[in-house]
Write a structure and sequence with these properties.
Its main location: membrane. The protein is an alpha+beta fold and about 210 residues long. The chain is built from two helices and nine strands.
Length: about 210
C-alpha cells in the first residue's frame, strides 16, 4: 500500500492600508515641508488613470487679490514641475499606487505662505464605461522663523530620556554582574571539603575520590 500527499502552497499578499490624514500646516523657514494629499481607493483591484494637479495662491494683502498658480502636475506615470516661484524646489512625495499624491517643498521661504490646492482626478477602467471621480483638498500653510516651542521641548525630552535609559541599563548590568559574582563566591565557600583529611578540595574532587 502506498500513500501519496500533495502539498499546496498558499501565498499571502500584504498590502499597505490607506489612511487619509490631514496635512501639516506650519512650516519652518529654510526647512523642507511635506504637503500631504491622500485619496484612498475603495478597491485596489480596480485600475484607474490618475492625474494630479497642485495649485498655489499666496495670502491676499489688503486691497490686492491674487489668482492661483499651477505649480505641479503628475500624469502618465511622471511628474512635471512647472515654471514659477517654486521651480527647482518641489519634489514628488507620493506613493507608487497613487493613493498618496503628496509633494514636498524644499528650502521653505516666507513667500511660500498661502493656500495650496490639491486636485486629483481618476478615470476608472471598466469593460463598457469609464466613470470618473474627483477630489479637491486645500492646505493653508504658514511659514515661521523656527519650530514651535513644544516641538523643541519634545526633542530635548527625547534625548534626556534616552540618556536616562542608557544609564539605568548600565546600572542594572553592573548590579546583576555583582550578584552573580557573589553567588559564585558563596557557592565555592559552602562546597564540602571533608572528603580528605587535612586537605581542602572541591565537590568535584570529593566525588571523584568517593567513586574510587
Amino acid at each position: 500500500m502506498t500513500y501519496s500527499s500533495t502539498l499546496k502552497h498558499i501565498h499571502f499578499e500584504i498590502r499597505p492600508v490607506c489612511v487619509d490624514v490631514p496635512s501639516e500646516t506650519d512650516a519652518v523657514l529654510g526647512k523642507s515641508m511635506k504637503l500631504t494629499c491622500i485619496y484612498c481607493m475603495k478597491r485596489d483591484e480596480i485600475k484607474a488613470k490618475t492625474r494630479v494637479n497642485w495649485y498655489f495662491k499666496p495670502n491676499e494683502e489688503k486691497g490686492n487679490s491674487s489668482n492661483k498658480t499651477h505649480i505641479y502636475k503628475y500624469e502618465i506615470n511622471r511628474s512635471v514641475e512647472l515654471d514659477g516661484p517654486f521651480k527647482g524646489r518641489l519634489a514628488w512625495n507620493g506613493s507608487q499606487d497613487l493613493q498618496d499624491v503628496s509633494i514636498q517643498i524644499i528650502n521653505v521661504t516666507y513667500n511660500d505662505s498661502g493656500i495650496y490646492e490639491c486636485n486629483v482626478s481618476r478615470e476608472f477602467e471598466f469593460d463598457f464605461f469609464k466613470p470618473s471621480a474627483f477630489l479637491v483638498k486645500k492646505i493653508q500653510l504658514k511659514v515661521k522663523a523656527k519650530g514651535a516651542a513644544y516641538t523643541l521641548y519634545s526633542e530635548i525630552m527625547m534625548y534626556v530620556l534616552l540618556v536616562c535609559l542608557t544609564f539605568w541599563l548600565l546600572v542594572e548590568m553592573v548590579y546583576c554582574y555583582r550578584k552573580i559574582s557573589q553567588s559564585d563566591e558563596q557557592a565555592q565557600d559552602t562546597s564540602p571539603s571533608e572528603c580528605l583529611p587535612n586537605k581542602c578540595v572541591s565537590l568535584g574532587v570529593c566525588l571523584l575520590h568517593k567513586n574510587k
